Amino acid sequence: MEAKQIQVELENLHYWDARVLSLDAHYFGDEVTIVFEDSDGNIKLSFTGCSKITVTTNPEDRISPIRKLTIPQIPYFIQDIEVEDILVNNHNLLSCKILMPPMNIEVNCNLINIAKAK
């Protein structure tokens, strides 16, 4: 049930075509944060208790260092976010799949928090 509530909250943000500003992992992948643009500021998605983090992109996207890109040059725009409840080794988790071509992300975690970025 938690996944459905998070999904509704995300869809109410009208995130479609929002530019992704950052993707960070901390504490050996226990915490993952994605920040994206919103008409009222920026939105921060925080994933905690992560047990799976998959980032897939094209090798061509890594020829030039991403760190040198300015915000208008960042090529990642969110097209879809799907959140679902899953069971892994008898643990109830959340699975979040984010489509932001040319990158796709999948995160399995204990908690997803949505907040205004500071």
Taking the alpha carbons of the first and last residues, their distance comes to 29 Å
Write down the secondary-structure element order.
HEEEEEEEEE
Neighbour order of strands in the largest sheet:
5-1-2-3-9
Protein structure class: mainly beta
Please provide the count of β strands: 9
H/I helix tally: 1
Please state the CA-atom Rg, rounded to the nearest Å. 14 Å
- Helical percentage: under 10%
Q: Tell me the overall shape.
A: globular
Low-confidence stretches: none
Outline the biggest β-sheet: 5 strands, antiparallel
Mean pLDDT: 93
Number of domains: 1
- Approximate strand percentage: over 45%
Give a structural overview.
- With 118 residues, this protein is mostly beta strands.
- The protein has one domain.
- 8% of the residues lie in helices and 55% in strands.
- It is built from one helix and nine strands; from the N terminus they run αβββββββββ.
- A five-stranded antiparallel β-sheet has the order 5-1-2-3-9, with helices on one face. A four-stranded antiparallel β-sheet has the order 4-8-7-6, covered by helices on one side.
- A hairpin with a 2-residue loop joins β2 and β3.
Task: Name the features.
118 residues; mainly beta; 5-stranded antiparallel β-sheet; 4-stranded antiparallel β-sheet; 1 helix; 8% helix; 55% strand; globular
